[in-house]
Design goal:
Its cofactor is Mg(2+); Mn(2+); a divalent metal cation. GO terms for molecular function: hydrolase activity. It is a single chain. The chain has 4 helices and 8 strands. With 159 residues, the chain is α+β, with helices and mostly antiparallel strands. The chain has one domain: Nucleoside Triphosphate Pyrophosphohydrolase, CATH 3.90.79. The strands form 2 sheets. Strands 1, 4, 5, 6 and 7 form a 5-stranded mixed beta sheet that branches. Strands 3-2-8 form a 3-stranded antiparallel beta sheet, with no helix packed on it.
């Protein structure tokens, strides 16, 4: 399956005023695996616009309640495990090529609403940046280490 392309996507590391990172538990899994908001880009969609769209679609947070602080200098990739490649995205992709953005949340916690038009998450919380790799599914742990490295200058404490 390594001849398959990567799905173009965007990811968001959203920080609150205390420097904690927004993570959410996917609705389609019973395993307690948390992730940062992320999603596929529409054909021809700019990565920044796609990131803001995905953030609102997944969390109810509109662009007016965030400030973009930084963008990772290059796209980051991950491969799906072989058993998932045939199931996810109709088997068209080997994984994702993600453009990551660091954003600061300007709203209040009670304004976050996971009950969107197409809910993807069952719960959310603020987490320490250093614990992110341990919260995500194993095949995305290296990706999360790369995201932490990309934004290390903007994060409080060791990543």
């Amino acid at each position: 399956m390594t001849d398959l392309p990567y799905r173009p996507a965007a990811g968001i590391m959203l920080l609150n005023e205390a420097g904690k990172v927004f993570v959410a538990w996917r609705i389609d899994t019973t395993a307690e695996a948390w992730q940062m908001p992320q999603g596929g880009l529409d054909p021809g969609e700019d990565a920044r616009a796609g990131a803001l769209r995905e953030l609102e679609e997944e969390t109810g947070i509109p662009a007016s309640r965030v400030e973009i602080v930084a963008e990772a200098p290059e796209p980051l990739y991950y491969d799906l495990p072989a058993d998932l490649q045939k199931k996810v995205w109709k088997g068209k992709y080997r994984g994702q090529k993600q453009h990551w953005f660091l954003m600061r949340y300007l709203g209040r916690d009670e304004q976050i609403d996971l009950a969107t038009a197409h809910p993807e998450f069952r719960a959310w919380k603020w987490a320490d940046a250093a614990e992110l790799p341990s919260l995500i599914v194993p095949f995305k742990q290296e990706l999360y280490r790369q995201v932490l490295a990309a934004f290390a200058d903007h994060l409080a404490g060791p990543a």
